[in-house]
Each structure stands twice: as structure tokens, then as C-alpha cells.
Design brief:
single chain, 520 residues, alpha/beta, Glutamine Phosphoribosylpyrophosphate, subunit 1, domain 1, Rossmann fold, 3 domains, five-stranded parallel β-sheet, four-stranded antiparallel β-sheet, 25 helices
Length: 520
Amino acid sequence: MFVFALWDSRRRRLFLARDRLGIKPLYYYFSAGTLLFASELKAIMALKDFPRDLDQESIPLFLHYQYVPAPRTVFKNTYKLLPGHYLVYDGQNLNCRIYWKHPERSEIGAGRGTTEADRLQQLDGLLTQAVSDRLISDVPLGALLSGGIDSSMVVSLMQKANTAPVRTFSIGFKESGYNEAPWALKVARHLGTEHTEFYVTPKDAMKVIPNLPEIYDEPFADSSAIPTFLVSKLARTHVTVALSGDGGDEQFCGYVRYWSTQAMAASFQRLPGAVRKSMAHVLGSIPPQLVAKCYLPWRPFLPQRFRMANFIDKWQKLIHLMRETSIQELYRMTICLWSQHELYSLLGKRLPKTRYEETFNETADWPLLSQLMRVDQKTYLPDAMLTKVDRASMANSLEVRVPLLDHRVVEYTSKLPDTLKYKNGTGKYLLRKLLSRYVPSKLFERPKMGFGVPIDKWLCTALKPLLLDYLSSDRLKKEGLFDEAIVQQKIKEHLSGHANHQYRLWSLLMWEMWRELWLK
């Protein structure tokens, strides 16, 4: 991971570069022959003459994706350097070029004659080397352990390479639907690590939330930034460097949305659009409270994949999905906060094209699972996941290293056929097989939980005063950016329990808090 700037004194040229996967950030401003660059946007904003002119198209993009997609930023003439790219500036012209890219479609599935056992050995060797390379440190080093497959894999290889117990850190919640801490503890005990855990309360979250706009520079609405900050803070009290398991989902088909999109696409092809829309209308008329009342008593008896803490959220998303017609729009609905239709009603603005559409078009003839993973690798991974971890950790002076995103690992996994990533209704097939060499499968074979927080409940309790203050009718009318009636309706529905608008309301709250800090 790296960003760097080199000055060629002989040729009088500046050279800027960002690492292949976008683990580290690089911002730059260029206008009228002036070039400014920094690893944080706030460093550029600190300059007295920097014009804080909003890029109006970034607003719907942020509300849609929960971040401003690269290469855009929230300001005009200000950009993020794309992963795997470099800039050359000679005092007059600024040229952006690519130096690394993911394997092409023709390379996917290369070496199909290789056995599964061979693949396991190859992957084990690559990951072992990637982890070993990141253990080199002259300061205390540990790992962030959620108890999930990715972080457990990294910690297993760390412990294999060490004679002394590895320091591991995790956080938990009193709300069972969000708490993976007991699983992290079981993995830590099995591997023999020196484990530290911390249970988060709404009070802890309230201390972090006011700092988020300053930590993230731009509007950023992934609520898991809160636990990421807190686990980084916990780790920093003991170590200076920590390894994490980020990047595994996007390489090994780890997100449920990958195979659920594939399943829905196959199902929807058998149902005419008019029928699906009619079904969506009928299902949408059922009050969420009634759905929850019917679902909750049966949850303990359902297959594990259907035992979801956020079932109502998934239910409402399914209804929206049934109205979509293309794979691109179908997948968009699984990842977006506000739909394109909702954004136009809220803002009166259309959604600009981004690398999301560009990558979908580039991979149009790919197998669907490979296509969805590649889209995420070029958009969601650098712009959301890695941004979240980098800002939260660096705010605590903690260096986080991500061995699963070693470029040799990424180049290898990108060529694996989908059948080694998704098999028998489960993602991360090959990685699960490898992890079972180090950790009993009973410790990690469970539904994916994610690193979320109970924002839905907190918005109705501890965060309610903050929500009502920043999204008050008077404030929104004065600013004139959002349709105040729509926002108030969303708040009313959420607080009454008639609908779960946690992610939409959180995005608006983050926007208003960012705006107050940086534009006033």
C-alpha cells in the first residue's frame, strides 16, 4: 500500500502515484494551472485560497452510494486519484495514466486443469507469504479479529508464523443481531491469541459520531465507520500496526448480494415485468410490523441463511428489486441507499454516470458472479471499505495492513473460476476449505453478519435528538436542498416503526453534519 510524490528536478516534472487497489488515498485539485495534492482532503481545504465550490452532481451520488465515487470528490476541480494510476505534471499539462489493472476476462478460469487440492496449496502459499511480508515491523503489531472467515484466516496465518501469542482485538454489541464478539473470542481461544474485546454502547457511539465529518473529510454514510473507529482505538492502546481481513468478500464471492442477485435474475427472467411489479405492489402494501410479527416466531426454525436480524430491511429491498428490469439496475438496488426515483423526488437531480456503469459495460459478457465482484473491486472496495478503514484507523494513529489485498493474491484469485468461490449455495468456498485447516468449521460456518451497528434502534433512542436537530423542518427549509416534506415523512415512518429508513436517514444526517463543519 502506498501513495507517493516524486519531483524530477532534471525534467521539471512531478510524479504522483497511488497503490494498485486503492488502500491509501490521494486527493488533488487542478484548475487554471494550479495543482494541489495531499493524502487528506482536509489538507487541501486548509489552504486559504481553496474554493469550496460544491460539485452539485456529487450530492445525489453520495446519497445513492453512501460515498462520493472516485474520481470525483464533493468539490469542483478536486479529485481522487484512481487506484493503479499515476499523474504526471510538467507545470502546464496534467496527464493521468494507468500502470496496473485487474486480469482480463480471458484470464479468468485460467489453468482449469489444476485440481482443487493444487488450488488450496497455491492459495495457502500466497496468503502465507502476504501475511509474512506484513509482519515486518519495529513497533508492536496485532490484528483486528471479527471472528469471520477473512479475519480468522489472517490471524491463523499470523499465529502460524509466530511463536508468541498474537495480539487480537474485537468489539461487540449488547444487541445479539449485531454481535460477533463471542465468535471472535472462540476463534482467538482456539488459535491461542492474546485477545482483547470491548462492548459498544450507544453512549460510546455518541462520542464518535460528532467526529465523523472531520475524520472522513467528505460526506461518508457507512455507519460501520463507528465500530471501525472504536476497534481501531482499542487496538491502538496496545499496538501501532494491525492486520485486517478486508478484501476477502470482493475476491471470494462473500457477499450474499452476489448470489442473491444471480438467483433473482434467473427467477425474474421467468416472470414478466408486469407480473413482478404487481407482486411488488401487493407485498409493499403489507405493513412492516405485520411482516415482522409473522416472521420472528418462525425465525429459529428456518435454515440459517434466512435467520436475519435485519429481515424487514431485506424485505423492503426485495420489493424494490422486483420492480427492476436489467441486471445492472437489479444489482444497483442491492447496494444503494436512495433509489434514482427517490433521489429525483428528494433533490430534483438525476444520477450521473460513474465507474459503476462503466465497469458493468466493460464486463457485459462475463459470468455474472465474476462481473459483480469486479464491479465491487473497482468501486465499493476502494471508495467505501478501504476508505472507511483507512480514515478510522489513521484517526487513531493505527496503521492497518491488508494482506488479502496483496496484488499477487488479487491477481491469483481474479483468475479462479466462480465454482471455486461459490459452491453448494455458499460463498468463499475455497477460502473456507483453507481456513478449515487452521480453525474448526463449527467456529465460522454461520450466516454472514457484517460489521454493522444497530443504527435503526439508536435513531429512535440515543440518536433521536441529533436526528431531529439536524433534519428539522426549519433547517431543511432554510437550506433548500432537500424536499423537507419527504424527509419528515421518512423520519415519522421510522420513529413509529412503520418502516426502517435507517440508512436513508443516516445518510442525510451525515450530509448535514458534514455541511455544518466544512461549509459554514
